[in-house]
Specification:
By secondary structure, the protein is α+β, with helices and mostly antiparallel strands. 20% of the residues lie in helices and 42% in strands. It is built from 4 helices and 10 strands, in the order H-H-H-H-E-E-E-E-E-E-E-E-E-E. It has helices spanning 4-19, 23-29, 31-38, 41-46; strands spanning 56-62, 69-75, 83-84, 91-107, 119-127, 132-135, 140-156, 164-169, 174-179, 182-185. Strands 1, 2, 4, 5, 6, 7 and 10 form a 7-stranded mixed β-sheet that branches. The chain has a 3-stranded antiparallel β-sheet with strand order 3-8-9, with no helix packed on it. The longest helix is centred in the N-terminal third of the chain and has 16 residues, at 4-19. The termini are close together.
């Protein structure tokens, strides 16, 4: 991890963790450091060389003490993530380039059937570069890349892959769990 803006972001987040280890307190305060990171033209320029993601995220950094990770996510124009939650982890999602719609859902069933979840869409917010979204644990959502695609920088309170996350199909009501996105180590030059 060589890019100065990412190193600075990591240092600022580590300082937040050192002062208070509760993500519910850290995530709102991490928005200022994330805003500075998203405003870095060098990072935006370097993202042109990042590979488009399918069910992977680029792993820029994993903290050895606090466990948070910094990821990159690149989507082709119009690509929609499946409707999902991130289980118990907190996410700070920032749009670096392009545009997206962030779609939110509420679960409306009584959770009595293990493989079923009735959900309804509650919001669809268009976002542009510099926009950030704090995704609380178990919040159901999806993102849809705009006409030019999108690049996001993501901070998560834990590295996905070692635990299951919720998946939702609103057309059939099917609910299932599977591991989070694959993490591909990606050095920033």
């Amino acid at each position: 991890m060589a890019m100065q803006s990412v190193q600075k972001f990591v240092e600022e987040v580590r300082a937040l963790y050192a002062a208070d280890n509760d993500p519910a307190d850290i995530w709102p305060r991490a928005k200022d450091p994330m805003a500075r990171l998203l405003a870095d033209p060098e990072l935006a320029a370097s993202s042109k060389d990042w590979p488009v993601s399918d069910h992977e995220n680029l792993l820029f950094y994993e903290d050895p003490d606090y466990g948070f990770v910094v990821n990159g996510l690149i989507k082709d124009p119009g690509r929609k993530t499946r409707i999902h939650d991130h289980a118990h982890i907190w996410v700070l999602y920032g749009v670096l380039t392009g545009s997206e719609d962030i779609v939110r859902y509420d679960r409306i069933d009584d959770r009595s059937v293990p493989d079923r979840a009735d959900i309804r869409q509650t919001a669809c917010d268009p976002v542009a570069p510099g926009a950030m979204d704090i995704v609380e644990p178990y919040a159901i959502h999806a993102e849809v890349a705009g006409d030019a695609g999108s690049v996001a920088v993501i901070m998560r309170s834990a590295k996905p892959g070692g635990f299951n996350q919720g998946r939702y199909d609103p057309e059939t009501g099917r609910y299932w769990e599977s591991p989070g996105v694959t993490q591909i180590p990606w050095p920033l030059a």
